[in-house]
C-alpha cells in the first residue's frame, strides 16, 4: 500500500504532462495543465501531500523516502524556477547513485548491510548472502542511474518520461523477481502457517 501511494505523484506527473496545454478550473481556481513544467508543479505538490501524509500517519519516513522526497523537491523547484528540464533529467540518476552510496556505506557504519535492514524481518539469510545481495543492489543502483541519464539525453521527451514513470518500475520489478531464487529457501513462513502445520502433524 505504501509503495502504491509513493507512486501516485509520478502517475499524476505523467498524466498532467500528457494533456494539451491549457487552463482548467479546479474548485473555482484556474490551474494550468499540460507540458513538462506544469507537470513538475503537480509532481511537487503531490509529493508533499503523499510524503507528508505518510510522515503524519507513521510518525517517520525511512532514509530512502527522505532521499526521494528531497530529490523531488530540489529537482521540481529548480525546474519550475529556471524553466529547465535539466534538473528533472538529473533527479533519477542522482537519487539512484545516492541509494548506491548508502548501500555501500552501510557495511562500514552498521553491523547489518542496508538490504538486511530492509528485508531481514522476513528473510532469515546468513551474513554472506546479505553482503552478496547488498553488493548486487549497489551495482543495480549505479547501473539504473546511468540508464536513466542515457535515456534522458538520448531519447525524445515522450520516451524519456515513459521510461521514467513505467520503465523504472518494470526494471525494478524484474530485478527483485530475479533475486527470489537466491532468497527463497531463507524466507520465513508466517507464524500462522507454522502453527497449522504443527497441528496437522
Rg is 20 Å
Average pLDDT level: 88
Please tally the helical runs, counting DSSP H or I stretches of 4 or more residues.
8
What's the arrangement of strands in the largest beta sheet?
1-2
State the distance separating the first and last CA atoms: 36 Å
Strand coverage percent = under 5%
Helix content: over 70%
What's the order of the H and E elements?
A: HEEHHHHHHH
Extended strand count: 2
Structural domain count: 2
Determine the structural class based on helices, strands and strand pairing: mainly alpha
Largest sheet: 2 strands, antiparallel
Give a quick summary of the entry.
The protein has 201 residues and is mainly alpha-helical. The chain is built from 8 helices and 2 strands.
Can you walk me through this structure?
It is a single chain. With 201 residues, the chain is mainly alpha-helical. It folds into two domains: 1-82, no CATH class; 85-188. 77% of the residues lie in helices and 5% in strands. The chain contains eight helices and two strands; from the N terminus they run αββααααααα. It has a two-stranded antiparallel sheet. Strand 1 (22-26) and strand 2 form a beta hairpin. The longest helix has 28 residues, at 127-154. The radius of gyration is 20 Å and the shape is elongated. The model is unreliable at 192-201 (pLDDT under 50).
Could you name the key traits of this structure?
201 residues; two-stranded antiparallel ribbon; disordered C terminus; 2 domains; elongated; mainly alpha; 8 helices
Amino acid at each position: 500500500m505504501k509503495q502504491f501511494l509513493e507512486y501516485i505523484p509520478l502517475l499524476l506527473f505523467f498524466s498532467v504532462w500528457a494533456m494539451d496545454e491549457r487552463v482548467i478550473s479546479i474548485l473555482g481556481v484556474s490551474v494550468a495543465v499540460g507540458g513538462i513544467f506544469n507537470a513538475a508543479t503537480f509532481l511537487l505538490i503531490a509529493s508533499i501531500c503523499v510524503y507528508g501524509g505518510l510522515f503524519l500517519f507513521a510518525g517517520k519516513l525511512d532514509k530512502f523516502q527522505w532521499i526521494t522526497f528531497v530529490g523531488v523537491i530540489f529537482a521540481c523547484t529548480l525546474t519550475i524556477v529556471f524553466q529547465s528540464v535539466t534538473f528533472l533529467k538529473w533527479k533519477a540518476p542522482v537519487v539512484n547513485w545516492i541509494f548506491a552510496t548508502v548501500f555501500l556505506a552501510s557495511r562500514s557504519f552498521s553491523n547489518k548491510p542496508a538490504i538486511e535492514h530492509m528485508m531481514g524481518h522476513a528473510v532469515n539469510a546468513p551474513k554472506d548472502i546479505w553482503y552478496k545481495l547488498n553488493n548486487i543492489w549497489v551495482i543495480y543502483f549505479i547501473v539504473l542511474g546511468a540508464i536513466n541519464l542515457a535515456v534522458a539525453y538520448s531519447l525524445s521527451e515522450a520516451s524519456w518520461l515513459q521510461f521514467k514513470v513505467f520503465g523504472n518500475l518494470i526494471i525494478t520489478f524484474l530485478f527483485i523477481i530475479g533475486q527470489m531464487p537466491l532468497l527463497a529457501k531463507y524466507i520465513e513462513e508466517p507464524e500462522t502457517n507454522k502453527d497449522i502445520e504443527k497441528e496437522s502433524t
